[in-house]
Amino acid sequence: MITPVLLSGGSGTRLWPLSRKSYPKQFSPLLGETSLFQRSAERLSGADFAAPMVLTNSDFRFIVTEQLAGVGIDPSAILIEPAGRNTAPAVLAAALWQAKSDENGLLLVAPSDHEVPDAAAFRAAVAAGVPAARGGKIVTFGIKPTRAETGYGYLELTEDPGDFAARPLALSRFVEKPDADRAAEMLAAGTYLWNAGIFLFAAKTIISAFESHAPDLMAPVRAAVDRGKPDLGFLRLDPEAWDSAEDVSIDYAVMEKADNLMVVPFGAAWSDLGGWDAVWRDSGPDAQGVVTHGAATAIDCENTLLRSEDDGLELVGLGVKDLIAVAMPDAVLVADVSRAQEVKRAVSALKAKTARQATAFPKDHRPWGWFESLVIGDRFQVKRIHVDPGAALSLQSHHHRSEHWIVVEGTAKVTVDDEIKLISENESIYIPLGATHRMENPGKVPMVLIEVQTGTYLGEDDIVRYEDLYARG
Question: What is the pTM of this model?
Answer without folding.
Answer: 0.88
